[in-house]
Amino acid sequence: MNTLFTRINSINLLKFINIDIIIYIIIFLLIFFIINRYLILKRQNNSSCIKILSTTFIDSNIKIVVVHVKNLKFILGITSNKIFKLHTFSKKKKKKK
Prior knowledge:
The chain has one helix at 2-47; strands spanning 50-57, 63-69, 72-78, 83-90. It is of the alpha+beta class and 97 residues long. It contains one helix and four strands; from the N terminus they run αββββ. The model has no long low-confidence stretch (mean pLDDT 79). The chain has a four-stranded antiparallel sheet, with no helix packed on it.
């Protein structure tokens, strides 16, 4: 009788533990999903105002990059230690005659 009682208790305990584990897994997955959504939205908002249009490698440590920021385009020289602004283009509105 005692062994039957312990078996019933262990089965009930396993059901209880399994439900808890399932709940913890669901909560973990929800938190993981929310964090990923937040990071994806944050990346999309940041990348909308700065775009890299072109990259040309001059050497293994030197490259020239054309970057578009809002209404400006920059030509940047990038080395392993510094970033130099080589030229700036601005969008000028053409006057209609």
